[in-house]
Write a structure and sequence with these properties.
The protein is an alpha/beta fold. It folds into two domains: about 170 residues, 3-Layer(aba) Sandwich (Rossmann fold), CATH 3.40.50; about 90 residues, 2-Layer Sandwich (Pantoate--beta-alanine Ligase, Chain: A,domain 2). The chain contains ten helices and nine strands. Helix 6 packs across helix 7 and helix 9 runs antiparallel to helix 10. About 35% of the residues are buried. The protein binds adenosine monophosphate.
């Protein structure tokens, strides 16, 4: 007897619309997890959460060319469809949308959306056009999938804030569910790009988590000077011979504007190259009340 295929693989927008219609007829909510594939526990945690919340779970797997700059890693971004399919199926995903680029971007495609202020700082500065690519593909996916809820990791904190703002600004009805960062046992945030790391770079990369955690402790103990704290974290990371820092910033958790004084919910965010891998990480900085 052959294995019963529980998870549907949908390749076209028309197939997704039909699947969605069947779910709706069955009275089921639709929970959506957008991804670029090469799954790890971070992705699976979003899928499990979507499943646990009830309804049918659909995952999109699309390495979106629009969000990669000309010098970035679009071509060599890791891909393994069979592995991804098995992993998604193992956590009970009901359908996977795996479009070709031509399905998402026919030759006459010309519209993009931009979430103005939130796209400017942090990764927006070193990756021009990246968040327009993200916002555009996510808006398209929301229109194709029409989810009741969509799940995003705090690993990509700026992306999460941009999507929340997009939903608000354009009056979308989807509920955005933020999910905590999943880490390796030594603290490194899981990322598909971690496969780029050599063993030496992989070991060195733990400095990101350690320095963020240290910053979080400083704030819990009453430290409020964002400038001094930022410099200290920057120095800790720079001490690693493998790290090339892109940015270390302490920002308002909502507006992502730089803070001088940590007197409200804040976020410390870092981006650094370790060899070929550009790694990002972030952590909440919550000043003690009173
Ligand atoms: P990606 O495939 O890298 O575009 O990520 C797809 C989704 O998974 C995004 O919402 C990410 O924020 C989320 N994600 C990626 N890595 C992690 C992680 N380590 N912990 C939690 N969520 C993650």
């Amino acid at each position: 007897m052959g294995k019963i295929l529980l998870m549907q693989i949908l390749k076209t927008i028309a197939e997704v619309r039909q699947w969605v219609q069947e779910c709706r007829r069955a009275g089921e909510a639709i929970h959506f997890v957008p991804t670029m594939g090469y799954f790890h526990e971070g992705h699976l945690s979003l899928m499990r959460r979507a499943k646990a919340d009830g309804g049918r779970v659909i995952v999109s797997l699309f390495v979106n060319p629009l969000q990669f700059g000309p010098q970035e890693d679009f071509e060599r971004y890791p891909r393994d469809f069979e592995r991804d399919r098995a992993m998604a199926e193992s956590v009970g995903v009901d359908a996977m949308f795996v479009p070709e680029a031509s399905e998402m971007y026919p030759p006459d495609f010309q519209t993009q959306v931009r979430v103005q202020r939130l796209s400017q700082p942090l990764c927006g500065r070193s990756r021009p056009g990246h968040f327009e690519g993200v916002a555009t593909v996510v808006l398209k996916l929301f229109h194709i999938v029409t989810p009741d809820r969509a799940y995003f990791g705090e690993k990509d904190y700026q992306q999460l804030r941009i999507i929340q703002q997009l939903v608000r600004d354009l009056n979308l009805t989807v509920e955005i569910v933020p999910c905590p960062i999943v880490r390796e046992p030594d603290g490194l945030a899981m990322s598909s790009r971690n496969v780029y790391l050599t063993p030496e770079e992989r070991a060195a990369a733990t400095v990101l988590y350690r320095s963020l955690q240290w910053a979080q402790e400083q704030v819990a103990q009453g430290m409020r000077d964002a400038h001094v704290l930022r410099e200290q974290v920057q120095a800790q990371i720079a001490a690693s011979p493998y790290a090339r820092i892109d940015y270390v910033e302490i920002v308002d958790a909502e507006t992502l504007e730089p803070l001088e004084v940590i007197d409200r919910p804040a976020r410390i965010a870092v981006a650094a190259y370790f060899g070929k891998a550009r790694l990002i990480d972030n952590m909440a900085l919550n000043p003690p009340s009173g």
